[in-house]
Design a protein that fits this description.
alpha+beta, three-stranded antiparallel beta sheet, about 30% helix, signal
């Protein structure tokens, strides 16, 4: 029982150490849509970290397509209805509103 617990803990630590390296190994390079291509042959305009330069994209979508939302959120309209004023106090009574 103790051996399996130790192995599970070891595998968990190893996964926690190696997972961030695998995730951040390659930055996403997006194609930049433009009408003119001033890049050398074999390259195209790309964006990486907001900078436009020449290269080859490693994603199939552009940055604008990735950031576009499918539909705008609809906000719920709330109508204000005032509460009716009620006076239930007798003159001279304590705690009246």
């Amino acid at each position: 029982m103790r051996l399996t617990t130790g192995m599970m803990a070891g595998l968990g630590l190893m996964g926690a150490v190696l997972l961030p390296a695998q995730v951040s190994a390659e930055p996403k390079i997006y194609a930049y849509p433009s009408s003119a291509n001033y890049c050398p042959a074999g390259l195209q305009p790309i964006t990486i970290s907001g900078v436009i330069c020449c290269g080859t994209p490693n994603t199939s979508t552009s940055y604008q397509q990735m950031m576009a939302h499918p539909a705008p959120k609809k906000h719920k309209v709330r109508h204000y209805t005032p509460r009716p004023v009620t006076y239930s106090c007798v003159p001279g009574e304590k705690g009246c509103r």
